[in-house]
């Protein structure tokens, strides 16, 4: 049976199985969903067993478990280590969802749910592609699955797991579908990822909330101060204004930038799609450069004082913000976290107290385009899309790519089938059925090519 | 029976009646408490009737009702119009209360509850002082009560009520207890109030929440932009940086400022009380000046993006803030609201959309110290505190003082018995039993003095 025939016969089941997985709210950031995250791990284990994996195990960590499974066809065959994650982002703001985030619906040939693309949908393509190869007796490589539950909170315990399981995880390449491509008719493969340093800051003024009439003008208002401190983190050219921030930033050559600029991109469509009158970013760089080869600093959340209806004349005691920085190759999260912390404390006026905490970080990564694995992926996409995929740097971060290189000595192929418009991390996340099925179709070709090219 | 004897005999009941009133959560800012606000009006009506008032009526408005009641002893006697409010501020942040805000408790001779001081406690002193004068046959003036339910949301419908009831509200002076005094052993009378202009702003960047990796650096982050806009609203001397803002500000003479500086004040105690390493405010003005004769701009609340536990790598679509300005005599709220709106829109970069809305405003006011009413209040405090009260400007706003002057031609005496440390508008609001009973004791002396001095 051909790949395409198998998919045609089973696609309704493939979709329904994914919908079931999406119904479990595996929000790793919120302790209230602990039970659901564990339940999702159980479910992933069950699906791997059903698809034909051996030695399937829920490997406990200090946090959420890693689900491991494998199929070893022969010691001499090449081995592909598939990584994915079963946890999802929090769904808020809930009121902007047009359907409940954990009650998936199909509209216009797209599956709407939190995790539909990131990463349950993309991860599950590998489980179904594996099932396909097992059922059609075409699995040409050894395969190992490592599906974790803490990607959205920084993969805190994956490093320990990987270090403790180096033998079990031995492979020739890591294959991950947790990125996107340019468009359904413009396939691309991500070859660069930004790193991440994610901070939380708290500014305290007076020791309690105060009446803004009685105290207004005489004490430091922590919200005003926090705004001033945040505002000072960018200069007039929208460069990050933290001493040393750009010291190690990789500078691309004019040729490299010219090559990048060839990727199809319409600024008008970009603005229209986001309903923007104007774009905004670092002077002297294009939009595509701003989201790939340049580091950034963004406030991801801010809160303080009265947020209810109407008016409350209060000076808050505290104001807080979550601030993250995307990093490029050679900027390490540890170094940037330290620079940020030192700088943020140094710019606080004496009239407030400042607390700076680091959430997770991750290294930037660049993956090679001259490897056998990259070529196998490139050829697989050519087969199923009828076009050569474009190598592309992405603005997102998958910190574990650097981890796998460091601990396992393995390069990664970022074999993503999502689109920027899938609204991952946003309300109304969705994943095209075209993309889901195209992934299941393309992955077996990767295995076939990789086995042949490795000979 | 003397005033003091009547209070001694009835003080437990006076306290228990106030506690009952505090149990009704009359939060005018939150529509969820609508029923409770109306219920509080009913309760105030009942209490006025029981104390001996005539023609007690719940006067409906477009919002919450005004409770009116009166006792006319003779057409030739002077008339005192008592104003107060039965609505309260929202209690949040709830987790900072050591006891529930609407379940009053007495600790260290203080009543803890939302509204204990502002203004249920201070308003109810007048009801009990009235009862005392009725029961001891000592009421020397006509008295009219006007107790509203929208003070904490800007008294939106009081103007209409006052205009429609000019005859009924005819009086010689307005008496209000909704301010404080310097300390329990330093009586003072408020003679100036700041005005208020309260705004809400919303900054919109992209049309939906975005992944901060994929879009970070290329689109305007509305939180960063809002912070930059807010930061720009003060200059390096902490002056409000809105064109025209200071144009009409009343400038006090060196002599006036020297007179003000005589009020007892310890900066060390002020800082210690608020746990501040340093104060913060407009250059070249003292703390007391900053909160009385100078206008201010404070952010009262800010929100946007992810505020939950952990990390979410999102660029929010919107960020919002509540921003209020305290005004001094000659600055009108309408003018300042217009200046703010125009300026805030003008400083927005093209990459965002800005919405500016006005909440309530109020005029600043200065009350005379050479009136019969002021002298009657001064003498009453001398009798019960044994010390001449200090005339003092306050930083707070009671916009209705200007309204009464304009519509009824009446001056106001701000006869407050609260303390700055009562934490009004904050968690753990409280009111000293000493202050509550001292108010009930002092008010009848005001009536006695005012009747005698008016002859």
Fold topology:
The structure is a homodimer of 455-residue chains.
Chain A: H1 3-22, H2 34-51, E1 54-59, E2 66-71, E3 79-85, E4 105-107, E5 110-112, H3 120-135, E6 142-148, H4 158-164, E7 173-176, E8 188-193, E9 195-204, E10 210-211, H5 212-215, H6 222-231, H7 254-260, H8 267-274, H9 287-290, E11 296-305, E12 314-315, E13 318-327, H10 333-346, E14 353-362, E15 365-366, H11 372-385, E16 390-393, H12 400-408, E17 412-414, E18 430-432, H13 433-454
Parallel strand pairs in A: 3-6, 3-7, 7-17, 8-16
Antiparallel strand pairs in A: 1-2, 2-6, 4-5, 5-18, 8-15, 9-13, 9-14, 10-12, 11-13
Structure commentary:
The structure is a homodimer of 455-residue chains. In chain A, 34% of the residues lie in helices and 22% in strands. The first copy, chain A, has 13 helices and 18 strands. Chain A has helices spanning 3-22, 34-51, 120-135, 158-164, 212-215, 222-231, 254-260, 267-274, 287-290, 333-346, 372-385, 400-408, 433-454, and strands spanning 54-59, 66-71, 79-85, 105-107, 110-112, 142-148, 173-176, 188-193, 195-204, 210-211, 296-305, 314-315, 318-327, 353-362, 365-366, 390-393, 412-414, 430-432. The first copy, chain A, is an alpha+beta fold. Chain A is globular and about 80 Å long. Chain A folds into 2 domains: 3-193 and 365-454, Aminopeptidase, CATH 3.40.630; 195-249 and 295-362, Alpha-Beta Plaits (2-Layer Sandwich). In chain A, the strands form 5 sheets. A 6-stranded mixed β-sheet of chain A has the order 1-2-6-3-7-17, with helices on both faces. Strand 11 (296-305) of chain A pairs antiparallel with strand 11 of chain B, so a sheet runs across the interface.
């Amino acid at each position: 049976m051909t790949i395409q025939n198998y998919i045609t016969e089973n696609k309704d089941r493939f979709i329904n199985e994914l919908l079931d997985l999406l119904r479990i709210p595996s929000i790793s950031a919120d302790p209230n969903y602990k039970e659901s995250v564990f339940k999702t791990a159980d479910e992933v284990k069950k699906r791997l067993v059903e698809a034909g994996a051996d030695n399937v195990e829920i490997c406990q960590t200090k946090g959420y478990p890693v689900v491991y499974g494998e199929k070893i066809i022969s010691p001499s065959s090449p081995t592909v280590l598939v990584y994915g994650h079963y946890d999802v982002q929090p769904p808020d703001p809930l009121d902007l969802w047009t359907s409940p985030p954990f009650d998936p619906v199909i509209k216009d040939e797209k599956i709407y749910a939190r995790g539909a693309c990131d990463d349950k949908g993309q991860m599950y393509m590998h489980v179904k592609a594996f099932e396909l190869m097992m059922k059609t007796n075409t699995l040409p490589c050894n395969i190992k699955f490592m599906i974790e539950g803490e990607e959205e909170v920084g993969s805190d315990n994956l490093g320990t797991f990987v270090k403790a399981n180096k033998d079990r995880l031995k492979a020739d390449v890591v294959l991950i579908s947790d990125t996107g491509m340019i468009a359904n008719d413009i396939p691309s493969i991500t070859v660069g990822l930004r790193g991440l340093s994610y901070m939380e800051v708290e500014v305290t003024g007076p020791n309690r909330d105060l009446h803004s009439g009685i105290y207004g003008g005489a004490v430091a208002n922590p919200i005003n101060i926090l705004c001033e401190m945040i505002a000072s983190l960018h200069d007039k050219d929208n460069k990050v204004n933290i001493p040393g921030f750009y010291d190690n930033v990789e500078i691309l050559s004019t040729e490299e930038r010219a090559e990048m600029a060839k990727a199809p991109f319409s600024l008008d469509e970009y603005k229209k799609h986001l309903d923007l009158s104007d774009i905004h970013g670092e002077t002297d760089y294009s939009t595509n450069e701003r989201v790939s080869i340049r580091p950034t600093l963004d406030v991801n959340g801010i809160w303080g004082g009265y947020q209810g209806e109407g008016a409350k004349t209060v000076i808050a005691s505290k104001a807080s913000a979550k601030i993250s920085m995307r990093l490029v190759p050679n900027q390490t999260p540890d170094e940037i976290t330290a620079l940020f912390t030192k700088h943020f404390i140094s710019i606080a006026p004496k009239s407030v107290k400042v607390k700076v905490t680091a959430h997770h970080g991750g290294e930037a990564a660049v993956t090679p385009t001259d490897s056998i694995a990259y070529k196998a992926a490139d050829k697989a996409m050519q087969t199923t899309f009828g076009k050569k995929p474009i190598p592309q740097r992405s603005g997102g971060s998958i910190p574990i790519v650097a981890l796998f290189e460091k601990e396992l000595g393995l390069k990664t192929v970022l074999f993503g089938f999502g689109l920027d418009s899938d609204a991952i991390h946003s309300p109304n996340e969705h994943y095209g059925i075209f993309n889901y099925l195209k992934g299941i179709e393309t992955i077996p070709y990767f295995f076939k090519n990789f086995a042949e090219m490795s000979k």
